[in-house]
Fold this sequence. Notes:
The structure holds 2 protein chains of 2 kinds.
Chain A: H1 8-17, H2 19-41, H3 46-62, H4 64-77, E1 81-85, H5 88-101, E2 106-109, H6 113-117, H7 120-126, E3 130-133, H8 136-144, H9 160-170, H10 183-200, E4 203-206, E5 210-212, E6 217-222, H11 226-233, E7 236-242, E8 246-247, H12 250-264, E9 272-276, E10 290-296, H13 300-303, H14 319-322, H15 325-330, H16 341-352, H17 369-373, H18 380-393, H19 399-412, H20 415-433, E11 438-439, H21 446-449, E12 454-455, H22 462-477
Parallel strand pairs in A: 1-10, 2-3, 2-4, 4-7, 5-8, 7-10
Antiparallel strand pairs in A: 5-6, 6-9, 11-12
Helix pairs in contact in A: 2-12, 3-12, 9-10, 16-18
Chain B: H1 3-15, H2 21-34, H3 48-61, E1 65-69, H4 75-85, E2 91-94, H5 98-101, E3 112-115, E4 124-128, E5 131-133, E6 138-142, H6 149-153, E7 157-163, E8 167-168, H7 171-182, E9 190-194, E10 199-200, E11 208-209, E12 216-222
Parallel strand pairs in B: 1-12, 2-3, 2-4, 4-7, 5-8, 7-12
Antiparallel strand pairs in B: 5-6, 6-9, 10-11
Amino acid sequence: MELTSLKFKEQSSAAIANADLQRALGNVEKGFIDKRRKSTDALPEFDRLRDNARDIKNHTLAHLDHYLEAYEEKVTQSGGHVHWAATAAEAREAVLAICQQRKAKTVTKGKSMITEEIGLNDFLSANDITPVETDLGEYIIQLRGEHPSHIIAPAVHVNRDQVESDFRRVHTQFEAERDLTEPVSLLAEAREVLRQKYFEADIGITGANFLVAETGSSVIVTNEGNGDLTQTLGKVHIVVASIEKVVPTLEDTAQILRVLARSATGQDMSVYTTVSTGPKRADDPDGPEEYHVVLVDNGRSDMLGTEYQEMLRCIRCGACMNHCPVYHAVGGHAYGSVYPGPMGAVLTPSLHGIDKSGHLPNASTFCGRCEEVCPMRIPLPKMMRHWREQEFEKHLQPSKARFGLGIWAYVARRPKLYRRAVSLAMPVLSRLGGARHRIARLPLAGGWTRHRDLPAPEGATFMQQWAERQRHDKGSKA
Amino acid sequence: MSGRDAILSKIRASLGAGGDEAARKTAVAERLAGHPRGVIPERGHLPAAERLALFRDMAIKANASVATLAGYDALPDAVLTYLRERNLPASVRMGTDPRLAEAPWHEAATLEVKSGASDGEDVTGVSHALGAVAETGTLALTSGTDNPTTVNFLPEHHLVVVDAKDVTGDLESLWSALRTSRGDGSMPRTVNLVTGPSRSGDIEQVLLMGAHGPRSVHILVIDPEGTMPAERTP
């Protein structure tokens, strides 16, 4: 997709004004937060598992070259093929070459964020290969010509009635009078349409939640079973996965699985966790004849050894966006990048450069909920702050903002001057607030007061109150 | 330079590798060979009877249903009962698993048993699981002629047989059992860990059963020793 993160402000204003979107976004808070809390509360070892999950990924990243080599060896041993792609373009070409060799016309796809990142669908379509998304949410947004607005609930921005009208528009093979008022009838219709696609497809493409170095396996985690039908019924299975998906062993996978499903959907375990190793064996009655893995770097090796390395622990559970007040307000599309929310605000500048995505690390109140819920303990606010610093250092902000920040920095570093300025400003602001103690308009603060009142300060400053209390305490002790 | 070399050399440069390479290699080899188990939740550490009861409770929590059978002799009748109660056609699809094959299917004269992979037309499939995990109510199914993977996903109803003795406390123990069962460090083409029936919450986050896989998963625990405690009546 085209990166439009530079228009974050315009896009988020439009998102806030979009009543349909706001209705749909209500489901994020309702749907995810309580479920996660219940399932994590029910597992006393959850925090220790998070620590271990973090340690497993840290160890793996520190030895990534060796684990990738070990993984490749095992894939080859089991009859599969590994294709290394340094860039998105190389990854697309690798997939296309396999498709063309098999003269593929249709490919089914399991849900995969990396194929969004490399823009695979548009590329395949341009080469006369039809990609069919099979995850219900991905299928819905493919019909709508949209991109996912959430990494695990791609159609979370769409309401039921919108799905109904999309299905009526596209599924013209069914009677026009059919009843689609219930979500279950929408699901049944999608199931029927897609069931046929699995059988027609030449190739199935999935992502991977894990690549297991010990066994050369790829692991996918789904609730629908669409990824499984995609990779079982196609004659060829192509796994597209980024290099940081590798974990050492099956046991390590089991550890991370415990924090993945709980953080994502509040399940103890997703419905289907599938470990795939190589193509169909001699005596297998089903399964793909060929098994390919396209290993994608696309900027990740540059993150190693930097302050953003920890981001490579991310397992794409979506908990950070599910708990983000900014995401709740504007949804995923406003971010203008493949990865929205706090993890996107850190990852997008890493992949595309801070000059193209400077608004994203600023799209945070730094409330810290994302870090609190991150199963891999990724310090997301700290990393967003690093990006803000780089943005400042690279002179990427508008001169007005830089000027304001410059003044602020000058004053903030001089406590006496700061206190004096504050104690002078307080009575003025207090008077401006009037009887309501709210300020509706303030010079230089239009960005704030255009949307809400500024609460006027009342009484003394913190330092004044503190000094007063100290005096009082001393007095009472004496 | 190939993509492979480009990626690996960039990783090495970024990590500042090149110092003690022998130590890094050893660390990797040791972890792969030793596969440490990490943090295992207490929940699954139970004597056999409680472990089976936990498996049943967790499978039911994941919207599966569970019945206990004294032996494989009772299997054909249990399958027929399941089909009859739901008004389903008296026909099932299954692989060539010897444990399933030994059940007296001829006693269920009205039941059609189709062998081999599913072609998508089957309403009900029967599989034998390698084992199960009590901690999460998860079944482990392995691919092959014994239990074709398509049987796990294409039929609307999936009946899964598992031996009581193969229900482990945690997933790590199941991996150990898998390694022992194959012995050579190889993996079956596919291991499906299945926890309840297929579902989707993609329309307004409302959970619906039967997205692409089975709408219903029914587990038949073969328990000749009578280890499974009686179900608590609510």
